[in-house]
Amino acid sequence: MVTAIVMIKAEVTRIPEVAEAIAQIEGVSEVYSVTGGVDLIAMVRVRRHEHLAEVIPGQVSKIPGVLSSDTHIAFHAYSNHDLEAAFSLGMDD
């Protein structure tokens, strides 16, 4: 599982609709409206590194109202939750 944290700047008046559109993209597990230097943070989880290009520049960046994005790829997850098991339900390799 490849996890990317995508920080998104959006047109202020369109933040809710941009967030909803991003949340509908396959591979996006969550979208948060946040304070600070960005408007939204999306968690993208895909099987292969190559799929990030399909999701982030291929779809997220093309949503009307998205002004820019900054992507951070996670090296390792430190968590009390077994994210790998949670996201592998019903998926074949």
TrEMBL record:
Pfam families: AsnC_trans_reg. InterPro entries: Dimeric_a/b-barrel, Tscrpt_reg_AsnC/Lrp_C. Residues 6-75 form the Transcription regulator AsnC/Lrp ligand binding domain. It comes from the Bacteria. This is AsnC family transcriptional regulator. It comes from Streptomonospora alba.
